[in-house]
Amino acid sequence: MILNTELEYKGNMFPSKIISYKKNLDTLSFTAENNVVLQVTVQRDSILRFRYSTTGVFDKDFSYAITKYASRGYNFLEVTEDVDKYIITTSKITCHIAKLDMRTAIYDVKDNTLICEDELGFHWEESYELGGDIVKMSKTAQEGESYYGLGDKPVDNNLKGKRFENWVTDSYAYGKNTDPIYKAIPFYTGLHHKKSYGIFFDNTFRTFFDFCNERRNITSFWAQGGEMNYYFIYGPQMTDVVSYYTDLTGKPHELPALWTLGYHQCKWSYYPEAKVKEITGKFRELQIPCDAIYLDIDYMEGFRCFTWSKEYFPDPKRMVKELADDGFKTIVIIDPGIKIDKEYSVFQEGMDKDYFCKRADGPYMKGKVWPGECYFPDFTNPEVREWWSDLFKELVEDIGVKGVWNDMNEPAVMDVPGKTFPNDVRHDYDGNRCSHRKAHNVYGMQMARATYQGLKKFAYPKRPFVITRAAYSGTQRYTSSWTGDNVASWEHLTIANIQAQRMCMSGFSFIGSDIGGFAEQPNGELYARWIQLGIFHPFCRTHSSGDHGDQEPWAFGTNITNIVRKFIEIRYQLLPYLYTAFWRYANEGVPILKSLVLFDQTDTHTHYRNDEFICGEKILACPITEPNAKGRRMYFPVGNWYSMWNDELFEGGQELWVEADLDSMPIFIKEGAIIPKYPIQQYVGEKPIDELVLDVYYKEGEETSQVFEDAQDGYDYIKGRYSLRDFKLVGKESSVIIQQFKSGKYITPYETLKIKFHGLPFKISKIQIDNEDVLFEDVKLNGDNTIIVSKEFTELHIVA
Ligand code: GLC
Questions:
Q1: Which residues contact ligand 1 via a Cβ below 6 A?
Q2: Contact call for residues 717 and 255 (beta carbons, < 8 A)
Q3: Is residue 457 classed as helix, strand or coil in its secondary structure?
Q4: How crowded is residue 500: how many other Cβ atoms within 10 Å of its Cβ?
Q5: Do residues 251 and 477 touch, judged by C-beta distance below 8 A?
Q6: From the CA of 31, how far away is ligand 1's center (Å)?
Q7: Predicted local confidence at residue 9, as pLDDT
Q8: What is the whole-number distance in angstroms between the Cα of residue 309 and the centre of ligand 1?
Q9: E-assigned strand segments in 660-779
Q10: Ligand 1 atom 10, closest CA
Q11: Which stretches make up the Glycosyl hydrolase family 31 C-terminal domain (predicted)?
Q12: pLDDT for 716-738, tens place per residue?
């Protein structure tokens, strides 16, 4: 007999029999004899929200995660009743609620597949230690079920068999399987019988998830307080689950400026000014593209946020301007800890206005961070966020800083047990006063939000750029993020790859790792391999703790410099491709990186893969994660794939050996794809884009591709000033037709498209544009299957 620990635990309490049912618009309430109430809200046909109260009364409904822009409304809703259950039907799902004990079961409405079913269902334990309830939920795992998501967990993609905790934690030099680390994203997707659904447990207390670890066929989640409040999201496509979740918790409020997708260079720390200039000068001298340079804590006066060290940076405005003239955007770090110093205006203002966090019995929450003893703004107070946002005026508007990097916002405190605030610290929580137990996981998110508000205000009409280390679900609306203090090891290269994929499938695509590793020092080979991966991550930045030597592209000898340059150049060429992927993410919530399981959930081979991923829609990449490798084995998902290096064609659905010396990496393009490219620039905006290159990969069959462009910054695109090219390719044995559908009011600066055909099985003998024959010399066809055509064409026809 399997020991059912959870059931036998005597402290658990359960809902009893349902005695009444009410319907109010989209919300159904079921009340049990023992006062438990289950509220089911039909958010969309495929999204149900489940909320339980153990007392018959619900707290005020408030969430930092759910965006006011979330889609709402359904096409169909019907509630029926039979002897033992209520049945809720939408156009996508059927949900059964047992009258006996409120247990639920959800089915696909079309074919009746059981998707997700309560085991014990909702239960709770009164917590004498913490006050309130420990709220719990358990579900039966379905046959062959796999689990994905949960933010930044540094573990293999598939979470099955593991157990996790969400408590945002500063985790210097974390390792594989360290848990918890910096982020709390209590959202996972389950996949079985080729169908996928998601669960978002919107509870900011310390939460726990168990995927068949404690008990073989049971998945459970619980929290040390708050409500059992979760959203069930049905796909059945996993990409839809992720994009519905992203719709619910928010897409980035604006596109990132194009330069933010360039390469960023960082270290703890570049100072004084002469050192910063030496670094930026070297990038230009060696012609290694770079758009952003970072100042870590040493730019400040005694680590006081919003100040500048007079000794190291006597004239920041001039320096920032000179860097900008050379194409570098300056990004500075801002931490939450405010130094206790009566002479320091930010501190004094915070005191005067009563904006710092306090302990339950009244004293300020005092803790040591870089500046020594600090107080901490309560970012969960909207008034504090407003004040904080105004502090950026000088930095952004006057000095010209282009981005702000929020760190230590878990919050990390060095001299307090648990390395964060004690549980009794009070927070405003937007008027819903509470203790740190509830506010901890959102503290960093609200800091990043306040910073974002500041950048948005003072960078306008340019777009804001913020980076955060800590995050809760929904933080992707305001900011980008990195995976924190990793280590310069081969294992961490693998971890960085999985973390970036996992963040993307957790709704947070603007993510990258400290390339090369933060702690310790990589050798040239590891650094080069990491850059190769990093160019496919939405946020691409080298960063290091700086105490183990240099970590610039030139720090490892000429051979490595050349390899690093070559890959950063590839990134710059791919900027329109990456930007288009970002636009899809910001518009539709489609993750920028797709683990193979997201790409093809029907292929069980993908369910346990970690290394290969799809960047955007058409590029398959797989990093080399071992030293001395000349190549590796990798899995090709469904479809046919061209090597980016030599157009060799690989058939999907199998694992194959791929060559990849140190100056190469397995990169493949999906057949039929049209990949847009810009010329190599040293920074975004260096050169006018006088031609858009389109790499066209032949396919026998059909394929669609998109290219999104706009002014690369600013808000005009929202008013329709963007250019969207939708391409449809139809390849036959002896012809290729490309149709172009254009929309948007932005006029691209170039007049022509340079179209390069790859993998053509025939020699071109005739070309037609918009139904008219053209001469080869008119399109400059010269033997390498490249032609130059007007950007306005609607149909291009090449024939054998
Ligand atoms: C933290 C950050 C790291 C930064 C350092 C100094 O460790 O994670 O990126 O360089 O603090 O500010």
A1: 268, 296-297, 333, 407, 469, 484-485, 543
A2: yes
A3: helix
A4: 28
A5: yes
A6: 50
A7: 67
A8: 18
A9: 667-670, 674-677, 691-697, 701-709, 723-732, 735-743, 752-758, 766-769, 772-774
A10: 268
A11: 589-675
A12: 999 999 999 999 999 999 999 99
Residue partners of 133: CB distance under 8 A and separation at least 6? 54, 124, 125, 126, 127, 225
pLDDT, residue 39, reads 98
Q: Taking Cα atoms as reference points, which of 339, 197, 256 lies closest to residue 509?
A: 256
Tokens of residue 265, six digits: 């260079």
Rounded (10°) CA dihedral 590, 595, 596, 598:
-40
Catalytic residue among 145, 247, 378, 410: 410
User: Which is nearest to 392 in space by CA: 473, 351, 332, 443?
Assistant: 332
Domains in the chain and their CATH numbers? 5-246 (2.60.40.1760), 593-670 (2.60.40.1180), 688-799 (2.60.40.1180)
> Contact, 512 vs 500, CB < 8 A?
yes
Say if residue 180 is preceded by a cis peptide, omega within 30 of 0: yes
Active site residue 485: yes
pLDDT, tens digit (0-9, with 9 covering 90-100), for 139-181: 999 999 999 999 999 999 999 999 999 999 999 999 999 999 9
Model confidence pLDDT, tens digit, residues 444-501: 999 999 999 999 999 999 999 999 999 999 999 999 999 999 999 999 999 999 999 9
> Whole-prediction pTM value?
0.98
Q: What is the DSSP letter of 377?
A: B
Q: Can you give the three-state secondary structure of 332-351, one letter per residue? A: EEECCCEECCCCCHHHHHHH
User: Does 410 participate in catalysis according to the annotation?
Assistant: yes
Ligand 1 pocket mutation pick from 408, 409, 547 by most atoms within 8 angstroms of CB: 408
The whole-angstrom separation of Cα 431 and Cα 384 is: 12
Q: Give the DSSP letter string of 42-110.
A: EEETTEEEEEEESSS-PPP---SSS-TT---B-S-EEEEE-SSEEEEEESSEEEEEETTT--EEEEETT
Amino acid found at 22: K
Stretch 348-375: mean pLDDT: 98
Q: Residue of the nearest CA to atom 7 in ligand 1? A: 485
Q: Give the active site residue among 240, 428, 485, 612.
A: 485
Candidate of 545, 548, 551 to mutate for ligand 1, largest count of ligand atoms within 8 Å of Cβ: 545
| Distance of CA 268 from the midpoint of ligand 1 (Å) | 7
Residue identified by tokens 């060559």 is 659
pLDDT digits (tens, 9 = 90+) for 676-705: 999 999 999 999 999 999 999 999 999 999
Whose Cα sits closest to atom 4 in ligand 1? 268
